[in-house]
Amino acid sequence: MTNYDKKYDADDKYSLRGRVFQKLREDILSGRYKEHEELKEVAIGEELGVSRTPVREAFRQLELEGLIRIVPNKGAYVTGITAKDVKDIYMIRSLLEGLCARLATEKISKEQMEEMEENVYLADFHEEKGHLDQIAELDNRFHDILYEACDSKLLEHTLRDFHRYVLRVRQKTLATNTRGRASNDEHRKIMEAIKAGDAELAEKLANQHMINAYDNMVKNGLKEIYGENTEEDTDKK
Amino acid sequence: MTNYDKKYDADDKYSLRGRVFQKLREDILSGRYKEHEELKEVAIGEELGVSRTPVREAFRQLELEGLIRIVPNKGAYVTGITAKDVKDIYMIRSLLEGLCARLATEKISKEQMEEMEENVYLADFHEEKGHLDQIAELDNRFHDILYEACDSKLLEHTLRDFHRYVLRVRQKTLATNTRGRASNDEHRKIMEAIKAGDAELAEKLANQHMINAYDNMVKNGLKEIYGENTEEDTDKK
DNA sequence: TCTCGTATAATTGTATACAATATACCTGCT
DNA sequence: AGCAGGTATATTGTATACAATTATACGAGA
């Protein structure tokens, strides 16, 4: 669990450490740094024009975000995500997104509700046109709205962590399949349940939404991308 | 979400940073540092005989564990837990402990099962004698066993985070009430459900176990200890 | 040719020095 | 008296220097 305060979040852009942290996170999530790749303090410091100190502090945070693993006196390595990890994450998310949707039904603001409707509408549009980037963007945003609407900083932060964690995986599977339409249909149903004030239904739909997302991943060859149990023996670089 | 690897966890005892990290965490959880208290880098460094560098790195980790909040260019403050936070945590834990118990039913090892039985048995004994410290210790351990038994590093780590997070609250309420017996009875029922292989039942019992724990907290005056919404305006030291 | 050990280089861990920022206090003005 | 501004002080942010550890290269010996 991490600091869940908005105003002073870990990624303040105005310190060197904050910039390093954001840059590295982005580079890891975007796939610039491969799994199990070693990150060298001096190399990264030189690239960004800073000393090792802010780099090291950024490392500590990345480690607790689960993006890298620091082995004492050896180095920092980009963490691998196993197929088992992904499965676990979706099991957990299924429950928590459901809880989130249930809470959001009571707490959502008018503005948030409107943005959610707009989101679903826009996603339909881009789906027609085949704009994959925008679809992915809207998908992320839909869940962010939900997280904000549940009115629980803790749940919001927890879900954001998990969500971010699977972005690396999603990027490799979402863009190449036809889940976009089904996913957005599910978004619409969740949105409608929330709008109708049916918390029970919203929860169930959100539960199922995650299960479907995971099933789709498996169908699209998750196992082929990530080994079954490669996490343990990653000491070799 | 944080690094969930066992071997090289954040709290390696052999580096100065690791020692500082552990010491500060213990001091915060034990209540030595009060809520909203400011932690000064030099003061802590001098107390432990180390420079500011390892202290700062430890701070970054404590921040992401949710124990302190770092305000850029100002300082590090022990985070406050509001009554709302506690409620949210128990809602989340209710779901995740349930999931954990369900998974553990399939995955638990013989050794873990035996330790769990022993745990319940011992807790009964200490309950009779009124050994409050041992009861609290066994309670923590029961949940730890469950976390280990679910065979999911991610779920285990997530639950451990939440569990640790509420320790500060629990210490103030558990020792003074009669929940010990009821709690251990619930542990026994969960244990028996797991032993019988009834995953559904184990999940439901674990769900309810958390709800009961929370209800008991409220009954014992949680609100009186923690303000309703004090988290936002903590800038004053 | 292979293995082992040693020297060397590379890398991380920590301490310290310096810079930037925030806070407290004091002075002078109205 | 009360407020504005500025200076001093304390504290955090960053860079650099040094120590400790680990990885690598190379050569001696079997």
Structure commentary:
- The structure is a homodimer of 237-residue chains.
- The first copy, chain A, is mainly alpha-helical and 237 residues long.
- The first copy, chain A, folds into two domains: 16-78, Winged helix-like DNA-binding domain superfamily/Winged helix DNA-binding domain (Arc Repressor Mutant, subunit A), CATH 1.10.10.10; 83-224, GntR ligand-binding domain-like (Four Helix Bundle (Hemerythrin (Met), subunit A)), CATH 1.20.120.530.
- Chain A is 68% helix and 4% strand.
- The first copy, chain A, has a three-stranded antiparallel beta sheet.
- In chain A, strand 2 (68-71) and strand 3 form a beta hairpin.
- The longest helix of chain A is centred in the middle third of the chain and has 25 residues, at 83-107.
- Chain A is globular and about 55 Å long.
- Mean pLDDT of chain A is 86; it is low at 1-10 and 228-237.
- The A-B interface holds A 1-5, 8, 10, 12, 14-15, 18, 53, 56-57, 60-61, 63-66, 68-72, 79, 84-85, 88-89, 91-92, 95-96, 99, 152-155, 158, 161-162, 165, 231 and B 1-5, 8, 10, 12, 14-15, 18, 53, 56-57, 60-61, 63-66, 68-72, 79, 84-85, 88-89, 91-92, 95-96, 99, 152-155, 158, 161-162, 165, 231.
- The structure holds a DNA duplex (30 and 30 nucleotides).
